[in-house]
Automatic annotation (TrEMBL):
InterPro entries (UniProt xref): MasK-like_C
Organism for this UniProt entry: Halioxenophilus aromaticivorans
Protein name, as recorded: TonB C-terminal domain-containing protein
Keywords of the record: Signal
UniProt keyword annotation of Signal present: yes
Lineage: Bacteria, Pseudomonadati, Pseudomonadota, Gammaproteobacteria, Alteromonadales
Signal peptide segment: 1-21
């Protein structure tokens, strides 16, 4: 059974070390983060098989070190109530390089909304 899913990634970046570069670095962050949509979709689809009621928003705090590697990723507010899904999403972020960001180190609050349409 295939579920129709709607994944909405809403991003908000905070705590830039250089406020004048905030809009540029935010765009750069969004560009790298958007490449994770397929992986997040796959993780959500897997989680839906175990619990078809998973949906909602989660805000992740992501800290990127001066070499562009994700130093930490943790859900700070979650409606999923699914640790495996949250861990999988953080692991996906940790697998990406953010070395192309113009401001490093960098911290972001990243909101991911996942809703099933079945």
């Amino acid at each position: 059974m295939k579920s129709l899913l709607k994944i909405v990634l809403l991003l908000a970046a905070f705590n830039c070390t250089n406020v004048t570069a905030e809009s540029t670095v935010e765009k750069e962050f969004k560009s790298v983060a958007s490449s994770l949509k397929g992986k997040i979709f796959m993780l959500y689809n897997k989680a839906l098989k175990a619990d078809p009621n998973i949906s909602g928003k989660t805000i992740f705090e992501i800290k990127i070190n001066d070499q562009g590697k994700v130093e930490s990723c943790k859900p700070v507010k979650s409606q999923y109530k699914n640790a495996s899904l949250e861990t999988g999403i953080c692991d996906a972020f940790k697998s990406k390089s953010f070395a192309s960001l113009s401001v490093l180190p960098y911290s972001a609050m990243h909101e991911i909304s996942l809703y099933s349409t079945n």
